[in-house]
Amino acid sequence: MYSPVAFGKKTDPTGEYIRKHLPVLKKFPSEHIYEPWRAPLSVQRSAGCVIGRDYPRPIVDHDEARKKNLQRMKAAYERGKRKGEEEEGGAGSRAKMGKKK
Fold first, then answer.
1. Distance CA 74, CA 25 (A)
2. Which of 27, 36, 52, 98 could form a disulfide with 47 if both were Cys (CB 3.0 to 4.6 A apart)?
């Protein structure tokens, strides 16, 4: 499961796409282009863009959301697996009745 941050860093490490389409962020160093909110205030000021004033703060913490979604996916997978096993081994099922046709 990719986050927008991880995907961007992997496919466009220098942030050319971000710089082109979000000119307010173009002066950020590459190391902060995908997470400008994590840049020290001095870097933000130097780039002419203070997060929360010139550019919005993140709505979602991608690390936290990823962890929660992985947990939810794992739980859903386990529920589906259990349900499938119950249906295969339930009373009157082909599995119990010797798979008669």
1. 36
2. 27
Full-model pTM: 0.66
Q: How many Å apart are CA 4 and CA 17, to the nearest integer?
A: 13
Residue type, 82: R
Cβ contacts of 65 within 8 Å, gap of 6 or more: 3
Q: 6 pLDDT exceeds 90?
A: no
DSSP sequence for 24-50: GGTTS-GGGTT-GGGS-HHHHHHHT--
pLDDT at position 34 is 96
Chain-wide mean pLDDT for the chain? 87
Tens digits of residue pLDDT in 33-67: 999 999 999 999 999 999 999 999 999 888 888 88
Angle (CA) 87 90 93, round 5°: 85
> Rounded to 5, what percent of the chain is helix, strand, coil?
55, 0, 40
CB-CB contact of 96 with 89 (8 Å): yes
